[in-house]
Amino acid sequence: MPELPEVETVRRGLQPVMEGDRITRVEARRADLRFPFQADFTKRLDGQIITGLGRRAKYLLVDLASGDVLVMHLGMSGSFRVVGAPKTPGSFHYPRSEERAHDHVVFHMAGGPVILFNDPRRFGFMKIVARAAMDREPLLKGLGPEPLGNEFDAAMLAAACAGKKTSLKAALLDQRVVAGLGNIYVCEALHRSHLSPRRSASTLADRKQAPTDHAKRLVNSIRAVLNDAIKAGGSSLRDHRQTNGELGYFQKSFRVYDREAQKCPTPKCKGRIKRIVQGTRSTFFCPVCQK
Ligand SMILES: [Zn+2]
Predict the structure, then answer these.
(1) Is 2 a catalytic residue?
(2) What is the reported pLDDT for 40?
(3) pTM score, two decimals?
(4) Is the distance from CB of 242 to CB of 88 less than 8 angstroms?
(5) Which helix (H) or strand (E) holds 234?
(6) Confidence band (pLDDT; 50, 70, 90) for 156?
(7) What is the pLDDT of residues 47-89, one digit of tens each?
(8) What DSSP character marks residue 135?
(9) 3 is catalytic
(10) Among residues 55, 56, 58, 217, which one is catalytic?
(11) CA of 255 to the centre of ligand 1 (A)
């Protein structure tokens, strides 16, 4: 499933072909993806100038001159292809379909490019929301801070975790604590900060709810792992062999995720990566250097 860095990479790939251009026509080739398209879906997009392309958690936000926002989610298998432009947005480590039968939404841009949304499993979706109603939008309401934004820091994370009896892993996957983090990057960030995924989330705060050193280390690790992944996505953008559905480039840089029984990459650590199940998800970590 695409995670935050993949979505950000897609955003950066689409931005140059969408922002500032006008949508001449949109084709919705089915009645639904994960949800039915709104009855006026194409009507609210046709002829609109795109004023900005943003992201909130794993949602792409296409701002239109009309004051509407097209909210797009890639789901499990959604991806974009751009025809008639030099760049194609990156696909990262999840396989990407190019089967035309799965091209469900097509944007014809006035500047020439055609942008295709392909989604074999159809867990992705698109919804138009008025900008003025975004605060009340159920999809976005209650999301925690962006992990790469200024609002997210050790004090904020400690306050959100203070008194929580859940594991640190579960707390970081909670979208109300921090938005857009998924299983892969939580495992990777915990390894980088040498914190055990089984540790209680409450240990990020002291008795006065102030951040402990653990919280500071973890915030730095979360930012670093996301930034590294976005950087790696940026390089796969320039490599067209990587964007044609092959497993991506950046997977090679995982330290623990999907590396069960391999040697821990921490210098001088003699541990081996272990896989456990927390909730219903696999956790990968080093029981020796993650405490
Ligand atoms: Zn280790």
Answers:
(1) yes
(2) 98
(3) 0.88
(4) no
(5) helix 213-237
(6) very high
(7) 999 999 999 999 999 999 999 999 999 998 888 888 887 656 6
(8) G
(9) yes
(10) 58
(11) 10
